[in-house]
Structure formats: structure tokens, C-alpha cells
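assembly run, all chains below
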Amino acid sequence: MKLIDARKDYYRKLAHEQGFRSRSAFKLKELNQSYRLIGPGFYVLDLGCAPGGWTQMAVKLTGNQGQVMGVDLSFVEEIPHAYLIRENIENEHVIDEVMSYFGRKVNAVICDLSPKVSGNWSVDHAKQISLNYDCVKIMDKVLANKGNAVFKIFDGEYSMEFKDYVKKKFARINLTKPKASRKQSSELYCVCLGFIG
Ligand SMILES: C[S@@+](CC[C@H](N)C(=O)[O-])C[C@H]1O[C@@H](n2cnc3c(N)ncnc32)[C@H](O)[C@@H]1O
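ok done. output:
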């Protein structure tokens, strides 16, 4: 077995053993260990949350005092202590639903969106980055001052433009690839800390 496959299997097995719906949950865990995006008591908005691995991890990280809301085009099976809605994040009325659930601005916005991939990388990359801009529109309205965010990026020609766009809104940002992310995948994560608006 190749090292890459062994690692893929390792995270899948771990997710199964620990009751997480996706191995992606460990990407968020790892990002959180490095950057402390989410802490106990945080209000967290998870955009593109199906099947729910990140939402489950966010519930764990925020603890009893926290609140987590997940949004996805697809149906997501109930997750204890999380509020889930089936919506398209391209619709701006999602903002009203977010604000009415939390009743105040959130401490973190986490975005792991992927479009339905066509197999044409330039098209998939452009669509994925466009979804990230939609997330920023929501984030601008719902993230509290000094809040944190993370965006998955299908790396390609528009990545740096997106990075520069969000950079102005945060005290610190970093592009990173967690170990739980497959080496051969071109995804990166843009970690953003300290929202300044
Ligand atoms: C990689 S999955 C997310 C995995 C999730 N973080 C987890 O740990 O289980 C990407 C998700 O983005 C969602 N998505 C793509 N476009 C969307 C849109 N316009 N609105 C809402 N969700 C969208 C897809 O339905 C898909 O479930």
C-alpha cells in the first residue's frame, strides 16, 4: 500500500472509530490545533456542511456553551446540539436565517465548500472560488469583530486573488494544507484570524 493510501485509510478508520461522518473532521481538528480557530463557547457557522464531519467537530470544540449552525444544499442528518438548514449559500437571505438563529454575530465561519466537480479543473476551480466569495458576503455580515474564518481553496489561477481579497479583512491569514488532506488533492485551507471588517 502506498503511503498516501495508508494515510487516507488511517483517517477514514479514525473517523469511523470516533463516530465522525467524514475524515474531513480531522482536517478541522488539525487546523484548530495549529490556529485555535474555534474555542469553547464559540458561535460557529459551517457553510457547506454535508455530511457533517466539520459540524460534529465544531460541536465538540465549542462545548456546552457554544452554538453551531450548518448550511448545505444537501440534506444533512440531524447532529445533536447543531442547527442545520438546507439552503444554497448563494442566496443572500441565508444571512437572515443565520442572524435569527444565533441572535448575535458569530465567532467563527468555517467553509469547506466544493461544487459538483465536472472534471475540468479550471471550471471547478473557478466555481469553487466563486462559492468562497459568496461565503465572504455572508461572513461580512455575520462575523463578529476579532472573529476567525477558514476557507477551503481548490488551488489554481484565482487562489492568490481570493487570498489578497480576504487578507484585507483580517489581522492575520495563512494558507496551509493539513496532513489529513490528501497529498495529491489540490486543496488548501486559507486560515483567517482576527476579523477587522
Ligand atoms: C466537501 S463537502 C463538505 C464536507 C464537510 N465539511 C464535512 O466535514 O462533512 C462540500 C459541500 O459543499 C456543499 N455545497 C456546494 N455548493 C453549495 C452551495 N451553493 N450552497 C450550500 N452548500 C453547497 C456540497 O453540497 C457539499 O456537501
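The radius of gyration is 16 Å.

The pocket of S-adenosylmethionine is lined by residues 21-22, 24-25, 48-54, 71-74, 88-90, 112-115, 131 (CB under 6 Å).

not gonna interpret more than that til we talk
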